[in-house]
């Protein structure tokens, strides 16, 4: 099923068959490895990307369903105003440990602040619930989102 | 363990251009006098002509922070800023990059990275500084004693220049025999909370390269179809359905018959082709028991005479003292199997280069073990094998299997090919949960007698479970007189002054593959010790903190003093005893890996309708905190790891097969589970001790004690969610 996908603003030709999860198109075919494989069943959030601005789990999103959509990955986040603020906050607070989940954490956090520029702790917990961090960096993820919110407020 | 670094000389080498200064230790421990022009030299520190310092980090980075910590030691001693310093992971070479606590083994584990590198990397940095200063002294014709290096700038009176100016000249000099280390009062970076992780930016923007991110040209992805129960062997397979999958290449039985390797062009093809593969197994030698049977065996062992008298106590006398006590407390505890479940499923990539070398690309925790395994499989000398260490997406012990399990799988899957294509082995999450290694199930039975004043008169303690160390390469190191110390660490060797303790241990039969899991034996021993201390204090009518301090009262005993120190700090910071209305507190304190951690857990709600973990307040004494913010992060994460698993996780077996398969049924800690975690560090002048693991042991018993204080059950059978506690 050769097709074209719009990823980070660029049209990319892909050969993946119908039914292939977007995750493997991005990682294996396009060799963009910032998006991570963690569980394959949409239970950890490591593979989170944006489709038309909404965070989705790319391990459960299929190539045929995203033709014509705007797909955005972690690789484009430094050019995104909210993404850059999140990344700045992440470095200021040293949120990461092993870091493997953090691309997905950043993608979800950008989704949250896009909808809700000043989330409460409860709103952060609810929105970020599906993003697992086995290093348990959650305290700093929460603080990082609050710090990014401050940065964006200026 | 003691480390003698005094005989270790420093050696420097110069690359052909003379523009690079390399400083390191010679493997034979003999002092190096002359300069070496060899580029084969393996250094700890490299300084290029631009003055950029590269620290060769001998420990892998799984999040615990050595890629920041070791550069901090070097930058401190050189007088460089953290911006001028970078890192790379060391090649596999146990003569040079061994863990000084592990003998001739290069590897990370047991929370030793900073403790064993502390002197070594400072000395390497100090040697580089002295050579740069000597070069500046020659150039400027001034006395070396008047020269300083700060922020990478060499200064003598009015003269100053960046270190880059002196790299070439310094590379011509001899390395100092005993470089002078900075006095702690001069530290600018060590202990400085503003020092940031070196790996933060690349981990927040997707650029970090983990093992899973390897894409070698022309590589195949391989997945292994394994038996449902450990020990099953392949009889044959039918891959006709796999052949229908686009991207499937072929399938082959591994030489050890432990599974069938499925080769494909990419990961998705491998996943589907493996799913479609039909394998016939011989399960006659496979594990067949249910976890209920394993638990029954452990409970039976607790009721029988122990196999080993661990602390050589007179058990009959202790038993008699308890029998004659005014109050007797008796509890039996059970801890289930647990999976490590690091975020990055196991993987590695192996290739043969044009010059015939075997190269393993891996987030390699114990390079020496992997190196040796590859030598055996490929029948090649050590120098024909290389290990390229990549970032690790967590481990918690999982990557450090004594038999190099997944690297051996990859090597076996590669050795049966014509080796023209690199092989990348990928595990799925299901493989990780179902085919992995587990924290062994353990049981404890404790009887404690108290006199009329509430003093302990006897403590009889039995432990039963599967030994981690026996039958591995670590047996001679960790097992003495039959006793696997990792099964009982943290009980009889606890700093508490407990009179009349008798500790027995019984090894139960092999149930599955078991492995150290963040904090090893302390995962269960701290839970038992610290919930028992609470129960005993309650029976004696005493405050749990005061009762513990009474057993840590010997000020001349550094162990007791430091343990009491963190207890007091945690108590103060948590405002112990003054929990807001509707909240309850629990406390626990434990020593592990040379460090002391106390934690106060504050909860609201109740066990029936739902406990909410509002706050965890931690106090840690790990000696000098080289990177205080990394120390805090490790204690935060360690506490979360401990709490998450006791809340609701267990691995169970049915007919030898693991019942759980992925995060939906092995539910990880989530962001909403813990309201806040604060960490406070005790100021210390002691050498650094462990920090990756010590935050874990006290977290679970502190939670148990808080739930009990909230009038819930004092849980003795884990996980809590199966035993009378719900969480919100």
Describe the model.
The complex is a heterodimer of chains A (154) and B (728). By secondary structure, chain A is of the alpha+beta class. Chain A contains five helices and five strands. Chain A has a five-stranded mixed sheet with strand order 2-1-5-3-4, sandwiched between helices. In chain A, β1 (3-7) and β2 (10-14) form a beta hairpin. Chain A is globular and about 45 Å long. The N and C termini of chain A lie far apart (46 Å). Chain B folds into three domains: 10-204, 2-Layer Sandwich (Aldehyde Oxidoreductase, domain 4), CATH 3.30.365; 211-284 and 346-426, Aldehyde oxidase/xanthine dehydrogenase, molybdopterin binding domain (Aldehyde Oxidoreductase, domain 4), CATH 3.30.365; 291-338 and 438-722, Aldehyde Oxidoreductase, domain 4 (2-Layer Sandwich), CATH 3.30.365. Chain B is built from 18 helices and 32 strands. In chain B, the strands form nine sheets. A seven-stranded mixed sheet of chain B has the order 11-12-9-20-17-18-19, with helices on both faces. In chain B, strands 1-2-3-4-5 form a five-stranded mixed sheet. Chains A and B meet through α1, α2, α3, α4 and α5 of A and α5, α6 and α17 of B.
Summarize the structure.
The complex is a heterodimer of chains A (154) and B (728). With 154 residues, chain A is an alpha+beta fold. Chain A folds into two domains: 73 residues, Ubiquitin-like (UB roll) (Roll), CATH 3.10.20.30; 77 residues, [2Fe-2S]-binding domain (DNA polymerase, domain 1, Orthogonal Bundle).
Biggest interface:
A-B, 60 and 65 residues
What is the beta-strand fraction of chain A?
5-15%
How would a textbook summarize the main sheet of chain B?
A: 7 strands, mixed
The mean pLDDT of chain A is: 97
State the distance separating the first and last CA atoms of chain A.
46 Å
- The first-to-last residue Cα distance of chain B is 44 Å
Supply the key terms.
heterodimer, A: 154 residues, alpha+beta, Ubiquitin-like (UB roll), DNA polymerase, domain 1, 2 domains, five-stranded mixed β-sheet, 5 helices, globular, B: 728 residues, Aldehyde Oxidoreductase, domain 4, 3 domains, seven-stranded mixed β-sheet, 32 strands, 27% helix
């Amino acid at each position: 099923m050769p097709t074209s996908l719009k990823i980070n603003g660029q049209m990319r030709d892909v050969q993946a068959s119908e039914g292939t999860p977007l995750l493997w198109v991005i990682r294996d075919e396009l060799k963009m490895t910032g998006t991570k494989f963690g569980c394959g069943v949409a239970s950890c959030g490591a593979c989170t990307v944006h489709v038309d601005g909404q965070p989705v789990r790319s391990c459960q999103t299929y190539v045929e369903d995203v033709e014509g959509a705007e797909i955005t990955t972690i690789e484009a986040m430094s050019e995104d105003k909210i993404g850059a603020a999140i990344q700045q906050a992440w470095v200021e607070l040293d949120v990461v440990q092993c870091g493997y989940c953090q691309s997905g954490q950043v993608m979800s956090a950008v989704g949250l602040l896009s909808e809700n520029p000043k989330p409460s702790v409860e709103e952060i917990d609810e929105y970020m619930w599906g993003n697992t961090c086995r290093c348990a960096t959650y305290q700093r993820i929460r603080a990082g989102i609050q710090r990014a919110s401050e940065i964006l407020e200026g | 363990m003691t480390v003698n670094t005094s005989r270790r000389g420093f050696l420097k080498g110069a690359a052909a251009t003379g523009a690079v200064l390399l400083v390191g230790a010679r493997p034979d421990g003999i002092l190096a006098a002359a300069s070496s022009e060899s580029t084969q030299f393996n250094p700890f520190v490299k300084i290029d002509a631009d003055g950029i310092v590269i620290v060769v980090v001998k420990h892998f980075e799984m999040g615990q922070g050595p890629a920041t910590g070791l550069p901090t030691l070097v930058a401190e001693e050189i007088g460089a800023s953290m911006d001028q310093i970078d890192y790379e992971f060391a090649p596999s070479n146990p003569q040079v990059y061994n863990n000084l606590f592990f003998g001739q083994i290069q590897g990370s584990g047991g929370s030793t990275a900073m403790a064993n590198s502390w002197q070594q990397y400072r000395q390497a940095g100090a040697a580089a500084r002295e050579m740069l200063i000597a070069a500046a002294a020659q150039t400027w014709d001034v006395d070396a004693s008047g020269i300083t290096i700060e922020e990478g700038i060499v200064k003598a009176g009015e003269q100053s220049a960046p270190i880059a100016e002196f790299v070439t000249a310094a590379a011509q000099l001899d390395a100092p025999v005993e470089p002078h280390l900075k006095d702690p009062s001069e530290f600018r970076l060590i202990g400085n909370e503003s020092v940031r992780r070196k790996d933060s930016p690349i981990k927040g923007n997707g650029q970090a390269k983990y093992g899973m991110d390897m894409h070698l040209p022309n590589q195949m992805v391989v997945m292994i179809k394994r038996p449902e129960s450990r020990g099953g062997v392949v009889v044959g397979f039918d891959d006709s359905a796999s052949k229908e999958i686009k991207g499937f290449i072929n399938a082959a039985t591994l030489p050890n018959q432990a599974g069938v390797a499925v080769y494909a062009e990419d990961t998705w093809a491998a996943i589907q082709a493996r799913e479609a593969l039909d394998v016939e197994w011989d399960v006659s030698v496979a594990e067949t028991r249910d976890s209920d049977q394993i638990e029954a065996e452990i409970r039976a062992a607790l009721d029988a005479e122990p196999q080993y008298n661990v602390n050589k106590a007179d058990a009959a006398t202790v038993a008699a003292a308890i029998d004659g006590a005014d109050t007797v407390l008796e509890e039996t505890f059970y801890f289930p199997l647990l999976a490590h479940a690091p975020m990055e499923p196991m993987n590695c990539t192996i290739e043969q280069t044009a010059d015939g070398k075997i190269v393993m690309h891996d987030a390699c925790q114990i390079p020496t073990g992997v190196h040796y395994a590859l030598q055996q499989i490929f029948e090649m000398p050590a120098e024909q094998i290389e290990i390229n260490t990549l970032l690790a997406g967590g481990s918690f012990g999982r990557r450090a299997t004594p038999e190099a399990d997944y690297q051996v799988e990859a090597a076996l899957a590669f050795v049966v090919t014509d080796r023209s294509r690199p092989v990348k082995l990928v595990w799925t999450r299901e493989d990780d949960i179902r085919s992995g290694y587990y924290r062994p199930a353990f049981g404890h039975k404790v009887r404690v007698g108290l006199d009329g004043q509430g003093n302990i008169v006897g403590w009889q303690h039995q432990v039963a479970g599967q030994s981690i160390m026996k039958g591995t390469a670590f047996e001679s190191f960790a097992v003495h007189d039959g006793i696997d110390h990792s099964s009982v660490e943290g009980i009889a060797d606890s700093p508490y002054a407990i009179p009349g303790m008798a500790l027995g241990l019984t090894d139960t039969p092999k149930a599955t593959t078991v492995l150290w899991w963040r904090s090893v034996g302390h995962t269960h021993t701290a839970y038992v010790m610290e919930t028992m201390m609470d129960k005993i204090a309650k029976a004696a009518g005493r405050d749990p903190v005061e009762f513990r301090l009474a057993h840590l009262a010997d000020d001349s005993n550094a162990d007791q003093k430091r343990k009491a120190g963190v207890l007091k700090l945690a108590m103060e910071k948590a405002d112990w005893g003054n929990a807001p209305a509707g909240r309850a507190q629990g406390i626990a304190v434990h020593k592990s890996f040379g460090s002391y951690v106390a934690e106060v857990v504050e909860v609201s709600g109740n066990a029936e309708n739902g406990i909410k973990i509002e706050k965890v307040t931690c106090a840690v004494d790990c000696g000098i905190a080289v990177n205080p913010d990394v120390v805090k992060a490790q204690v935060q994460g360690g506490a979360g790891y401990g709490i998450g698993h006791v809340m609701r996780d267990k691995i169970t077996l049915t007919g030898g097969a693991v019942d759980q398969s992925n995060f939906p049924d092995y539910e990880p800690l989530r962001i909403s589970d813990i309201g806040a975690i604060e960490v406070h560090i005790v100021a210390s002048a002691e050498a650094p001790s462990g920090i990756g693991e010590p935050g874990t042991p006290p977290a679970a018993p502190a939670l148990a004690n808080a739930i009990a204080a909230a009038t819930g059950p004092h849980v003795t059978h884990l996980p809590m969610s199966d035993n009378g506690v719900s969480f919100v």
